[in-house]
Here is the input.
Amino acid sequence: MSLELTWLGHSGFLLHGRSATVAIDPFLTGNPVAPFGADAVTCHAIAVTHGHDDHLGDTAAIAKRTGATVFGSWEICTYLGEQGVERTEPGNVGGKIAAPWGWVAFTPAFHSSSSGGRYLGQPMGVVVHLEGTTVYHCGDTGLFSDLKLMGELYRPDVAMIPIGDRFTMGAELATRAAEWIGAKVAIPIHYDTWPPIAQDVTRFAPKGVRVLVPKPGARVALPHG
Ligand code: NI
Ligand code: MN
Here is the structure.
């Protein structure tokens, strides 16, 4: 086992491989549960699920400072390019993009994607493969039955699943999602950041799946893929 991860609170993660660190939805500025500021993030790549501020977050600033390559929708990559981000890998639902350290695939998500009224393409989930471990971050989504298919297609070792309700699945539906996806480990995300998405995390209780609730900022090891 060599992949470790750090939860940034809300929906953000750092995946630490030997050869690369990959961020997903790095939202730190304005995140009340962020363990540190965006300036503390060093990474080689950033995968973005959709354009909402609590996901796109500090992507532009981190990419410009570190030179990280951003994987996201065509529209998000175009938007970031306008802001001076030099390295982007645009994609869309169903696609897979090779990286020097592994690959990123984009999956469907039932949600929306915009920033300041600008349409930013399809909302998506991202599958990141790094260090022989496959991580499926569902993005923001409601429950849909193809989550089961995503589990079959990608066989993720770890799934990050939103449970906060209101804008995404709540804990009961997310429990169903985790059972369908079938990853050995599920990490609940997108809850308790603000009062409208307060949630009792113990209600996220998928059968046959280990629920991992990392402390924001703490680097934890994942089981082997
Ligand atoms: Ni959203
Ligand atoms: Mn969100």
